[in-house]
């Protein structure tokens, strides 16, 4: 089955929705998304969008804060572009109907770790959900946009599908994607003059993550297979305190709880943070995550405890109503009288598909924006609330690039073969997929998590290679399912993270290895770039 549009957008988070809405002025848009339309990392974002709107703030300060957090690897030009264009993009969101929280008639500006001024524009503590609501409504009434739920992209359509050998120097074009319509169990061919990857993050590579189930790195894996360059995959941000065993996504226990006086203990009642940092439990996000990881690996315990029992219970209820209520009602845990079991959880991927300042990948007609992309903004660590911002700014720049270089001409697309699954069989082996998925997540958590070493990374590489080959064989023999597509992508992305981590011979930002504990080695000031043609 062949479906043609001018633009094919993959993903319905902030990047895909905001871009679809704009490109609809240029031609027909099909937006596919693999689950229910609001299900995305965007929908869970709490804090907000960092933007310079206060007279007490300047672009220069926000740029400095971002570059400092990126530990020498942020691309200055990308950072400047993002921060200077932020107010215009924010105004567009307001115009679309996003109701940001106000105070005395002005936007209420919050402050988060690493920011030197109050600049976090938010909609109470459910900013992402409010953005999704407003953008989805605007999309639903636009005549040029067709949104298809339960459609999961399998692979980008490129020269690889025309049956000839693609080499390092072959120019590669993207003409759309093969997509599984999950409800009807049929693979469709979506053709488009321009394809935009807005498929979000990779959290489910790890056992514990704050990301919803959609975050399986599909976009990075598809782009890698198609021949795009992938960058900086070793820089995965972990949030130090998510509620242990709270399902998927893990429920976040805000850092503000430690700010309020909450203290971290091992299960043996030792207050361990003082051994790692003079600020104790109040140390920064990356230090606390590293300390918890070391303690868990040493003891074999599954979690540490966050204790608030010494604090006034009425103040806790008043200050943290969502956390108090969710823990009590959903997890039967009274945080005023019981310690909270917490683990760090994978939260954000700083790396991704390498793009230029206009969202272009190295593949002709293929753009990437949002968490799937590596624009160079975050470098080795992400400053809080810069990711929603990166998504809207670079989605807009991709739109401008497509507008100025308009190419609505489906006649330019060569004859693309139908999806060929002859010789494959319907598998009932769900257990194989589930088992491999858990094994990958466990390997990545144990060996490629917050604290790394050569020994752990090499062991992870060996084990993952075995699983990856098994999955690839199984994939070739079996009819595709959603589970199998995701599993194959998880294996690919894990491999990219491991390879990137092995190649970085220093500790920088979110990549900490005990074999190269020295930080910020001036000889290593470059991005890690991986291409399928080199492996
Ligand atoms: C709990 C939490 C809190 C956060 N808080 C903040 C915050 O306060 N501020 C901030 O700036 N950032 C925050 N972040 C990060 C931020 O939310 C994300 O980086 C951002 O929302 C990513 O947007 P996106 O559009 O790129 O991807 P997403 O919003 O993740 O959307 C990806 C879309 O792609 C679809 N998709 C994926 N694969 C396929 C496929 N193969 N086929 C079809 N569709 C596919 C998904 O279903 C989804 O619709 C937070 C993240 C989490 C998890």
Briefly, what is this?
The chain has helices at 14-23, 59-69, 76-96, 127-140, 218-226, 256-259, 285-299, 313-319, 321-331, 387-404, 430-447, 454-477, 482-503; strands at residues 2-10, 29-32, 49-50, 102-103, 106-107, 109-110, 120-121, 145-148, 151-156, 176-181, 186-197, 230-231, 236-243, 263-265, 304-307, 340-349, 352-354, 366-368, 373-374, 451-452, 512-513, 529-530.
Any chance you could write out the topology, listing elements then pairs?
Layout lengths: L1 E9 L3 H10 L5 E4 L16 E2 L8 H11 L6 H21 L5 E2 L2 E2 L1 E2 L9 E2 L5 H14 L4 E4 L2 E6 L19 E6 L4 E12 L20 H9 L3 E2 L4 E8 L12 H4 L3 E3 L19 H15 L4 E4 L5 H7 L1 H11 L8 E10 L2 E3 L11 E3 L4 E2 L12 H18 L25 H18 L3 E2 L1 H24 L4 H22 L8 E2 L15 E2 L5
Parallel strand pairs: 1-2, 1-11, 2-8, 11-18, 17-19, 20-21
Antiparallel strand pairs: 3-7, 4-5, 6-7, 9-10, 10-11, 12-17, 12-22, 13-16, 14-15, 15-16
The structure holds flavin-adenine dinucleotide.
Flavin-adenine dinucleotide (FAD) binds next to α1, α4, β9 and α10.
CATH homologous superfamily name of the largest domain? FAD/NAD(P)-binding domain
**CATH architectural label of the largest domain:** 3-Layer(bba) Sandwich
Ends: how far apart?
34 Å
- Major beta-sheet overview: 7 strands, mixed
The total count of helices amounts to 13
Report the top-level CATH class of the largest domain: Alpha Beta
Mean pLDDT: 93
Describe this structure in words.
The structure is a single chain. This protein has 535 residues and is α/β, with parallel strands linked by helices. It has 3 domains: 2-234 and 350-412, FAD/NAD(P)-binding domain; 241-343, Succinate dehydrogenase/fumarate reductase flavoprotein, catalytic domain (Flavocytochrome C3, Chain A, domain 1, Alpha-Beta Complex); 430-530, Up-down Bundle (Methane Monooxygenase Hydroxylase, Chain G, domain 1), CATH 1.20.58.100. It is 34% helix and 17% strand. It is built from 13 helices and 22 strands. It has helices at 14-23, 59-69, 76-96, 127-140, 218-226, 256-259, 285-299, 313-319, 321-331, 387-404, 430-447, 454-477, 482-503, and strands at residues 2-10, 29-32, 49-50, 102-103, 106-107, 109-110, 120-121, 145-148, 151-156, 176-181, 186-197, 230-231, 236-243, 263-265, 304-307, 340-349, 352-354, 366-368, 373-374, 451-452, 512-513, 529-530. Strands 1, 2, 8, 9, 10, 11 and 18 form a 7-stranded mixed β-sheet that branches. The protein has a 4-stranded mixed β-sheet with strand order 19-17-12-22, covered by helices on one side. The protein has a 4-stranded antiparallel β-sheet with strand order 13-16-15-14, covered by helices on one side. The longest helix has 24 residues, at 454-477. The chain starts with a strand and ends in a 5-residue tail after the last strand. The mean pLDDT is 93. The structure holds flavin-adenine dinucleotide. Flavin-adenine dinucleotide is lined by residues 10-16, 32-35, 39-42, 44-49, 127-128, 152-153, 198-201, 210-211, 214, 218, 252, 348, 370-372, 385-388, 391.
């Amino acid at each position: 089955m062949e479906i043609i549009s001018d633009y094919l957008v993959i993903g319905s988070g902030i990047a895909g929705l905001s871009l679809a809405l704009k490109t609809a002025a240029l031609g027909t848009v099909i937006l596919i998304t693999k689950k229910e339309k609001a299900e995305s990392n965007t929908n869970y974002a709490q804090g907000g969008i960092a933007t310079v709107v206060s007279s007490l703030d300047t672009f220069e300060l926000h740029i400095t804060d971002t570059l400092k957090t990126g530990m020498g690897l942020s691309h200055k030009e990308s950072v400047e572009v993002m921060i200077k264009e932020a107010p215009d993009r924010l105004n567009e969101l307001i115009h679309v109907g996003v109701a940001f929280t106000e105070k005395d008639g002005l936007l209420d500006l919050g402050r988060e770790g690493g920011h030197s001024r109050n600049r976090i524009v938010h909609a109470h503590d459910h900013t992402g959900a409010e953005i999704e609501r407003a953008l989805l409504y605007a999309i639903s009434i636009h005549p040029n946009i067709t949104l298809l739920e339960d459609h999961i992209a399998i692979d980008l359509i490129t020269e690889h599908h025309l049956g000839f050998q693609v080499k390092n120097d072959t120019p590669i074009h993207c003409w759309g994607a093969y997509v599984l319509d999950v409800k009807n169990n049929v693979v469709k061919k979506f053709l488009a003059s321009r394809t935009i990857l807005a498929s979000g993050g990779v959290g489910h590579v790890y056992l514990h993550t704050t990301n919803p189930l959609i975050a399986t790195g599909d976009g990075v894996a598809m782009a890698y297979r198609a021949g795009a360059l992938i960058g900086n995959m070793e820089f995965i941000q972990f949030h130090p305190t998510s509620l242990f065993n709270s399902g998927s996504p893990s429920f976040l226990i805000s850092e503000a709880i430690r700010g309020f006086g909450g203290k971290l203990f091992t299960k043996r009642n030792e207050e361990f943070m003082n051994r790692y940092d003079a600020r104790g439990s109040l140390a920064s996000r990356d230090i606390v995550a590293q300390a918890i990881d070391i303690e868990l690996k040493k003891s074999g315990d599954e979690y540490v405890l966050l204790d608030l029992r010494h604090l006034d219970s009425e103040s806790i209820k008043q200050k943290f109503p969502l956390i108090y209520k969710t823990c009590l009602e959903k997890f039967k845990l009274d945080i005023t009288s019981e310690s909270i079991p917490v683990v760090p959880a994978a939260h954000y991927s700083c790396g991704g598909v390498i793009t230029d300042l206009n969202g272009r990948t190295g593949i002709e007609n293929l753009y990437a924006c949002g968490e799937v992309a590596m624009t160079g903004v975050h470098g080795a660590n992400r400053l809080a609330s810069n990711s929603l911002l990166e998504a809207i700014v670079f989605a807009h720049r991709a739109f401008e690039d497509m507008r100025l270089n308009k190419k609505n001409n489906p006649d330019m697309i060569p004859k693309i073969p139908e999806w060929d699954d002859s010789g494959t069989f319907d598998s009932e082996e769900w257990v194989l997929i589930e088992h491999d998925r858990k094994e990958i997540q466990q390997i990545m958590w144990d060996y490629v998590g917050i604290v790394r070493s050569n020994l752990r990374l090499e062991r992870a590489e060996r084990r993952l290679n075995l699983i990856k080959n098994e999955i690839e064989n199984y994939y070739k023999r079996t009819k595709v399912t959603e589970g199998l597509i995701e599993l194959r992508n998880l294996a690919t992305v894990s491999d990219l993270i491991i390879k990137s981590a092995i190649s970085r011979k220093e500790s920088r930002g979110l990549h900490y290895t005990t074999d190269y504990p020295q930080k910020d080695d001036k000889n290593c000031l470059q991005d890690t770039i991986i291409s399928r043609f080199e492996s």
